[in-house]
Amino acid sequence: MDKKTFKTIDEQLDILKKRGLVILDIDKAKNILLRENYFFLNGYRHLFVKSWKDNDFIPGTTFEELYAMFLFDRRVRNIFFKNLLIIENNIKSLISYQLSKKYGFKEKEYLNPKNFSKDPMKVRQVHDIINKVKRQIRSNGSKHSATMHYLTNYGYIPLWILVKVLSFGIVGELYNILDTSDQIDISGYYNIDSETLTIYLAILSNYRNLCAHEDILYDHRTQKVIPDTRYHYLLNIDKTDDEYNYGKNDLFSVVIIMKQMLTIDEFREFINEVGYEIDLLEGKTNILPINNFLNKIGFPDNWRDIVDIDE
Over the chain (311 residues), what is each successive 10-residue block's mean pLDDT? Predict the structure, then answer.
């Protein structure tokens, strides 16, 4: 394997040109590479290469098209991120309300192990996650004004305040160990069964972290797979070996989850914003047909139709 060494901007451009990329404006390309990082930009090249065995670009591919894909991913990532934060806030609010109402608003009350799952297979998990939450109280309690206020003035942190310093991942784990009756009450708000919501939260947390760290979004796939939904059926998504090709562990699976967890208005705005970016991208790419690209990110050709289902 070749040893990776530092490459100057000129050397980076030479590599791209040797692979057949057309660079129309050298100075502009240099500035973009300096600002954006060759490694991140190069992460989109396989959309424009001849085959997975051939790293050369499809003849006629321009630097501008490669950069347009980079910008598309960034903008769509920001759209997904802000809506993931809405769902994160919602689920934190629901969990804190449910547990505070039922068990009390002090840590010793709402974090009592007796309140959680009675499944013998989850005994250790319950213990570990409660300890995770307590560690968050110890490590972050004095770092945020709201939690510090309650600790200083009352000696405890109510759950509706504590959830602000808990990660989405921990909140998803917390939901997974709740008593079955509490899971059902919370998932019922979304008209989703509790097992499905557990899967949804794990996938959303995965994408939330990806967005927060500005990782490549469009081709990401999760290990967990969402169950088949009526949206898969009503959109008539293609199947292979009786399995849906799209909307299972890809970006469109997140769209399906958001359909069920955002309000009607929030979801419509979300779809409109994503659609705008896709339309913008279509006007900037000549080498890659837009439908081919949509399929690569897990979107069926009729993906926009999901917004009108149930309305």
Answer: 78 91 94 86 84 85 92 95 97 96 92 94 94 84 78 86 91 96 97 97 96 90 96 96 95 98 98 96 88 89 94 57
At 90, list the tokens: 């919602």
| Cα three-residue angle 78-129-186, rounded to 5 degrees | 65
The rounded distance, in Å, linking the Cα atoms of 21 and 23 is: 6
Angle CA 117–203–298, to nearest 5: 150
Q: Look up residue 168 and give its two tokens.
A: 């989405």
Distance separating alpha carbons of residues 249 and 147, to the nearest angstrom: 36
Query: Which residue type sits at 132?
Result: K
Say if residue 150 is exposed, middle or buried (CB neighbours under 10 Å; 0-12, 13-18, 19+): middle
Give the span between the Cα atoms of 3 and 186, in whole angstroms: 52
Which positions ≥6 away from 16 have C-beta within 8 Å?
Answer: 23, 42, 63
Residue type (1 letter), 89: N
Q: Strand ranges (DSSP E) for the chain?
A: 49-51, 54-57, 239-240, 243-244
* Coil vs helix vs strand at 62: strand
Q: CB of 194 within 8 A of CB of 187?
A: yes
- pTM of the predicted model over 0.90: yes
Give SS3 for 22: strand
**Cβ atoms of residues 99 and 109 within 8 Å:** no
